[in-house]
Amino acid sequence: MTSALTGGVFVTTSGTDELADLRQLADDIGVRSFDERIGRRGLPDDFDSVAWKNLQDAGLTRLTSDPESGGGPTESAVVLRALARHAVTVPLAETDVLAAWLAAKAGLAVPDRGPLTIAIGNTGARTVSGVPYAGAAGAVVVALRDGAALAVAITDPATVETGHNLGGEPRDTIAVPGDGLVTLDGAAEELARRGAWVRCIQALGALDAAVEFSVAHTREREQFGRPLSAFQAVQHTLASMAGEVERARAATELAVAAVAVHGFDSAQADYAVTVAKVVLGRVVPTVVTAAHQLHGAIGVTIEHRLWLATMRARSWIDEFGDTAWHARKLGRMALTAGDPWDFVVGAV
What we know:
The chain is globular and about 70 Å long. With 348 residues, it is α+β, with helices and mostly antiparallel strands. The chain is built from 10 helices and 11 strands. The protein has a 4-stranded mixed β-sheet with strand order 3-5-6-9, with helices on one face. The chain has 3 domains: 3-90, no CATH class; 106-184, Butyryl-CoA Dehydrogenase, subunit A, domain 2; 188-344, Butyryl-CoA Dehydrogenase, subunit A, domain 3.
């Protein structure tokens, strides 16, 4: 893969060194955002316009939806994970992987620059709740489900009510437009799969941060004249956390690879994303609980960086289908699989 920041666009093709460069660029933006917002977090957490501008100037906001970006799902996953690891409060996943894609599929125009968001509801609804970053978006792509079909429209972000998820990310309520709806048959499943895919990647980034914070805390904090990390029980907890996160990483990387090779609309992606959602749904509560136990009471305060990682991870695993929903789906896949062994090893 080659990579270069050319004319404000980070152009990439596949390759280990270039992905490392991209990861470093995204990490740099994330670290800068985190450091600049220390002590300024709240509920809800404000949209980080500075970080968004840095991402946009680097050409990282439309990696999958703009063919001229030179990027794709693999590059998008690298950036999404890095931003989640540093708790950057921007709607990158909503803009690129969800809203811009769905608007293009419906033949509807959205702004080329600036953040977008997506509002997913049911046909006949007059409002849609849980809309990410509605107050910051230049346009909202509304997707109303009717079975496997979607009625899609573009609307201004007329916020009816503001809100937030557990990790402080804006989750608002908007009014549904009365006209301009375009029907897309069979698009509902891919939209849900795309949403589950990005939330798995983001949750993995947040878990990475939770483990890093826990390792640093137990090394720095002393009890009975020794660092916490010197106690065997703490060492076992840290090792268990690391093992669980690696299990989540393996499942998530399978989902990224399936999408990169076969596309979001493939059976391979459907299988891999479902597996990842189930695995993350089981790993997140375990790692979150252990991280807060190691931090003690300090870890639950809004002033501490841990809650940004753990609470966002807890929120993300329940979006676009919770663990139980995906587990039932995986079970149905297993029952209808031709060869059980092929299903177990992912040869679908």
